[in-house]
Design goal:
single chain, 170 residues, mainly beta, Jelly Rolls, six-stranded antiparallel sheet, 3 helices, 13 strands, 13% helix, 42% strand, globular
């Protein structure tokens, strides 16, 4: 494992994330949206905003998943990250999160609610440290990990990337 990745995992107290990689929640707003003011897709109250550190290392990837809230990814250090988004219309978008603006990388990427998305490192010998901000705040109740077979059935035109960035059921 990359020494700098080990450093960040230890210093930032990162734990394994169910979608792949490592994370630690660093902020959860003390203010709450009550369920009555949120769209019906939420089944309870939510923090105004949450933020995590997220790290991918080597061949790790963030498996296809979706959230009921918008998420903003912020680049901090390491390899650029390729983010793949399957839009509501079924179109595949590939964006690159990184700090080389001359190479069409961007420091922030917004993934809109209810879009399937996954991420992998551009350089599989490196790592990437990013931040993810979710509003209304993240809840595992709003998180859905992609089922490989269902995604393949729904989006056969994207089968290569779905097979690469999902995990087979055990």
């Amino acid at each position: 494992m990359d020494e700098k990745a080990i450093y960040y995992i230890q210093k930032l107290k990162l734990q394994r994330h169910p979608e792949g990689g490592y994370f630690n929640e660093i902020y959860r707003s003390g203010e709450i949206f009550e369920a009555s003011v949120l769209p019906e897709r939420y089944n309870g109250s939510r923090a105004f905003l949450t933020s995590i550190y997220f790290l991918l290392e080597g061949k790790q990837f963030s498996s296809f998943h979706k959230l009921q809230s918008d998420e903003i990814w912020h680049f901090y250090d390491g390899s650029p990250v390729k983010i793949f988004i399957i839009t509501h219309e079924g179109k595949m978008e590939e964006r690159v999160l990184g700090n080389n603006l001359n190479a069409n990388e961007t420091l922030q990427i917004v993934v809109e609610k209810n879009n399937w998305f996954a991420a992998e490192l551009k350089d599989k010998t490196s790592f990437a440290l990013v931040g993810c901000t979710v509003a209304p705040g993240f809840s595992f109740e709003d998180f859905e990990i992609g089922d490989r077979n269902k995604l393949l059935k729904d989006y056969p035109e994207h089968s290569a990337i779905i097979l690469r960035l999902t995990k087979a059921k055990a």
